[in-house]
Amino acid sequence: MARSTTSMKSLLIVAFLMVTGVLSIRQAEAQKLDDLSLERWAKLREVERYQLNIAEKYYREKNYKVAGNEYEKFLSLYEDSEGAPYSLMKWSLCLVEQKKPNTAISEGFQSVIDYWPESPEAVASAFYIGRAYKDMGEVRKAKKAHKDVVSKHGKHLVAVYSLVDLADLASIDMDVDGQVEAWRQLTFDISRTKESKTHCEQASQKLAAWCFRVGKLDDGVKSLATSYPPEQVPDRVRDYARAPIDELTRTDETREQGYMLTDKAVAWIRQQVPTGGSEAEKELGKNYWLLTSDLHAYSKRPEKVRETFEQTLKKFGVDDAILQRLGDWLKLQGEFDNARIEYAKFKNQLEGNNQIAYSFRQQKKYDLAVAAYTRNLSLDQDNQTKWNQQIAETWRDARKIPEAVAVYEALIAADPDRADSWMWNIAYTYHHYGGKYKEAIGWYRQCTNFPSNVQQMADCHRHQKEYSEAIGLYGQIIGGSPPTAPWALLQIGYTHEQAGSKEKAIQAFQQVCKRYPKDGHASVAHALLQDKYGISVTLGGAKDE
Fold first, then answer.
1. Distance (Å) of CA 296 to CA 220, 254, 260, 284, 450
2. Does residue 474 share a domain with residue 525?
3. Does residue 118 share a domain with residue 37?
4. What is the reported pTM?
5. Which of 317, 349, 364 is the last residue of a domain?
6. Contact yes or no for 89/121 (Cβ under 8 A)
7. pLDDT digits (tens, 9 = 90+) for 67-88
8. Residue 37 sits in which domain range?
């Protein structure tokens, strides 16, 4: 196809491009590979732009067969146009989408390279050849094509995409050296632009994790330093050493290797501790020491963790942030009582009690949690609402419904500006924690957050098998909240099902499809009708792509 639509006139374009030049690398990187730059759009005649716009419209709509025909039409009419190589490349992409990659490669992408070797599309097509082979499962051919791209266009955006693919292909082949080499090039050889930045950063992270896994700590640090400012590198060392340390210390064969990695990382981080005396430097140093406690935790050596916390407290003094981390770690060890001893040392007594209360809630010791929150009520006169809310939620978690409701009712009187929120909480408590649906309905009815309150009321009626009442409420939602109407009509169908009214349920589901064809709930109704009831329906017209 391509060779029949290109002629000697096409060769003139090559000469023209060689004289006038093509898009710079920076310009090419600033656009998607399958877009035509505004500069080149401007060079098209009006009739050319008209035809290309038709093709582009169908391409955007993912109607690749029609789009391909329109790109082919452009080539037959305007084979000497600035847009010719672009159209041939897009025609090829349409073939790829139609599962015809071999034709796309041989008659499309390769023809772009042969006839317009200096065009931006030639560079992009070289990449697309590799991607097509990759998608076909032709690993060897894909590797060869992508390596050729990197070799010839190492400073172009396509080199970034090819290196990403090469890393994936190496993973398929279980070629660790190939993966590492691709990550290394992305990390150290590729200039970081808006388009390449994310790929390069991800490669640096993967490279660092691999370096840590094989004991090359310094190389891993250098890799991370390409993506993060110096003060953030210790945090990232902690982050990306975590998985290797955890993996290595899981088995007897590699445990010592994991300990060595941990100790190296700890020593490196401590070397980064600032020596100055400013508050900012002290905070940074404290954070670095806490990072080392995390590393020891990953290595499953609790004695090292305790030792590190002791050293950190000795170096920086009793500090709530350190005590918080220590208490949280103790909870992970199941030492809740010891954790609470540390929380009790907080300079901020309110937060200490808060953490103590939360730890009791985690253990489902609700009475003791309430006692801790109650201590804060006597200490913090300015935030009575905050602590009473925590008490109410604790009673609710304990399924002590009367106690929770009593606190919420007191909050309505104490904090009338948020009365609607407290009434909602009472209704929600009765509904979802107490199973007291009649009481819940009474409180939901007083709330003003339509349609949410009506949705919950309808659910309560369904729990009580009061299906007519539920359907009536869903009808209110349909009439009063258009955005929620498709959901409400679907719920009517479900409610009829619960009531054993199969025909009415089917009718409701059909109405969802008919009235709201472009809403996601119509897709749900469509699937129900087809899969459960064996009824084929249309969604009232075409769904948006």
1. 19, 16, 11, 19, 52
2. yes
3. yes
4. 0.79
5. 317
6. yes
7. 999 999 999 999 999 999 999 9
8. 1-136
